[in-house]
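Query structure, 77 tokens:
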């Protein structure tokens, strides 16, 4: 009977190890997925911000452009 008790204890000791490994794998997988999503979203937001900033800069540059103007002595502009 003592042989049966020892075998039973060995099996019970293995279950927490397996559950810990599975739980760790799930946590790492979910963490990796969240990290990848966050990195992708941050990249998209940064690109959009840069594009909008450059667009505003182009508008400001266009507003303040001065064309070549000359004046002649005969009154023609």
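Result returned for the query:
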């Amino acid at each position: 009977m003592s042989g049966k008790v020892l075998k039973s204890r060995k099996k019970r000791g293995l279950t927490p190890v397996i559950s810990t490994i599975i739980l760790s794998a799930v946590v790492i997988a979910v963490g990796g997925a969240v990290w990848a999503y966050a990195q992708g979203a941050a990249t998209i937001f940064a690109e959009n911000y840069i594009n909008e900033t450059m667009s505003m800069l182009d508008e400001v540059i266009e507003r303040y452009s001065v064309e070549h103007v000359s004046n002649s002595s005969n009154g023609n502009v």
